[in-house]
Amino acid sequence: MRDGNSIIENNYEAQMKGATVSKILIVEDSPINRQILKKILDDSYEILEAGNGQEALDVLAENWEDVAVILLDLMMPVMDGYTFLAKAKEQKNYASIPVIVTTSSDSEKDEVKALSSGATDFIRKPYHWQIVKHRVKSIITLRETAAMFNLIKYDQLTGLSSKEYFYKMMDETLREHPDREYDLISCDIENFSIINDTFGYDTGNDLLKLVAGVLTECFSDYLYCARLNSDIFILLVPHQERYPDGYFQLPVDKTNERFKPSRIQIDFGVYHVVDDGSTVHVSCNRALSVIEKIKGNFAKNVTYYDEDFKKSKDFAHKITATMEKALHEGEFLVYYQPKYSLATEEIAGAEALVRWISPEEGFMNPGMFIPLFEKNGFITELDKYVWESVCKFQRKAKDEGVQTYPISVNVSRTDLYNLDVPAFMTELIKKYDLEPEDLHLEVTESAYSEHPEMIIEITNRLTDLGFVLEMDDFGTGYSSLNMLSDMTFDILKLDMRFAQNHMENKRQNEVLAFILELAKRMDLGVIAEGVETKEQAENLRFMGSDLAQGFYFAKPMPEKDFWELLKNL
Amino acid sequence: MGVFIDKLEAYGADTEVGLARFAGDEGLYERCFYMLIDDENFATLQEAVAAKKYDEAFSAAHALKGVVGNLELAPLYQAVSVAVESLRASKLDNIEAEVAKVAEEYEKIKAL
């Protein structure tokens, strides 16, 4: 198809509508010829007629959105075919409508001239009706296919490139210019779903269109810009070693100038594209994933993909890929950290802590994998394993006459969502013929405060079943004081590590005293975690903490060491 | 096949092709035939040649040629084609005779 670009680039919206009733405009001064053409075509299409070029322009002005093809006679009075053709091609709206000229059988020159003036095809007179029908049909089909390509090439809402087109063009660009350097800039509108929920989808769409415009305005040297999905955009730009200060604040300011309903924050990620054999998808993912570093950070709205981030991402992938196998093959080990009574300095219990000894990564502390497992849900599988390991330990101890003490296990908030914890625990206790008191359950304060009603319901059930609940990391969550009375738990765990020098810091000491007093009044036990010095231990004893756990007393130890410890009591 | 078709056939028209062009619609074929009879270009052609306005004559002849061709009126078509070519090439030595031939054929079809 000649002049394909104008078909593809102009008026994709109008073309989308083309699939409804196709109209054909017949421009022909002879009424006989018009009749004949109409006769040939009117069973399949709606026919519009014009007797000369001027009339044709008038008809087009009214109907251009639905006109699929124009059949044009070259020899006409008032305005001849060439003049009409020239005028039609000047009009943005009509320029892409295909024109088939009807020529006499002896005018090859006309045919050539017509084609080079922008006509798409020609039909010779006298009309051969099958040829007319087929030519018209194939041109309409071709145009609809081109319109389909528009759908594929452009994002319909914003007019930016579609995801597929962006990937394709980025790939081509990189191949064609291996010597040039590029950056990928990704953008994410923070809390976009809230905009949709609060102001409606139309406003949300307006914002997307606005941001699309702002991005192309601000990053004016971009090669390609696409909306990847919902509120995520990406641009391919020439590489810059350093972006000027305020460069990424400008688009945010411009957006807020023009968007009234609410203040908008846009986060940007910058990835310097490197030639390491990665596909464009991988490169784009790098640009997109790095934004997580600054999500919710009011101070920063741009971040750069670097080696450290890459390493942490690669590590996370590796973890995720090997976690199931690791669980299967016993790479997760349960360690035990004893808890001591401050009054008697005797052991009073222990906490079960998980470690991962991976053949690839070696010894790993929970901090390296627990957050990831909580995000991807694997934590529940791991926790079930830990709980069962502890039950086995307790059972074995009882069977062999070794003194047992309550061992506390961690219950993640993810577990509370994923699993019927009371039912599961009850089964587990029954299976190993233990008492609920043999297994204390540690739930972090933030789990309570995020979904109070749900958690309270579950913890009530657990308490009713006889389980003892320890609230972990007290003081680090968002609970208000009056929630404390609604929440069901028996023991408070305080992490001393946040108050390193509380000996010197009088105020921290006062807070601690207050918490201990509160606990006493509410009839709660208190365990101080992370006790590392004798002074801390002394102070805690003095202030009334019941139990303590920490390096000062004992480090977390492998199961068999803990076993020995208990045996030798 | 009606009377109209028979008459055209007798005249020398290729009615099979013509009818096919009209998608078998005899009525339409006939209507268009009568529209041709009323076509002013016949008169225009004669007058233009008489007044030696050969460009005008060419336009008229050319327009006629297309329509006559569509109606498959072979003898008339021949006559018109000859005139068109002469006018196109400005070979005017025989033009009066050629145009007269067109008029002759025109009378014949009018009589159908």
UniProtKB/TrEMBL annotation, chain A:
Chain ranges of the GGDEF domain: 180-307
Entries under InterPro entries matching the protein: CheY-like_superfamily (IPR011006), Cyclic-di-GMP_PDE-like (IPR050706), EAL_dom (IPR001633), EAL_sf (IPR035919), GGDEF_dom (IPR000160), Nucleotide_cyclase (IPR029787), Rev_trsase/Diguanyl_cyclase (IPR043128), Sig_transdc_resp-reg_receiver (IPR001789)
Keywords of the record: Phosphoprotein
Domain called Response regulatory: residue spans: 23-140
Gene3D superfamilies in alphabetical order: 3.30.70.270, 3.40.50.2300, EAL domain
Domain EAL: 316-569
Modification type 4-aspartylphosphate: residues: 73
Keyword Phosphoprotein: yes
Biological role: May play the central regulatory role in sporulation. It may be an element of the effector pathway responsible for the activation of sporulation genes in response to nutritional stress. Spo0A may act in concert with spo0H (a sigma factor) to control the expression of some genes that are critical to the sporulation process.
Protein name: Stage 0 sporulation protein A homolog
UniProtKB/TrEMBL annotation, chain B:
SUPFAM superfamilies recorded: Histidine-containing phosphotransfer domain, HPT domain
Domain HPt: 40-111
Alphabetical list of InterPro entries matching this protein: HPT_dom_sf (IPR036641), Sig_transdc_His_kin_Hpt_dom (IPR008207)
Pfam families membership: Hpt (PF01627)
The protein's name: Hpt domain-containing protein
Organism, as annotated: Ohessyouella blattaphilus
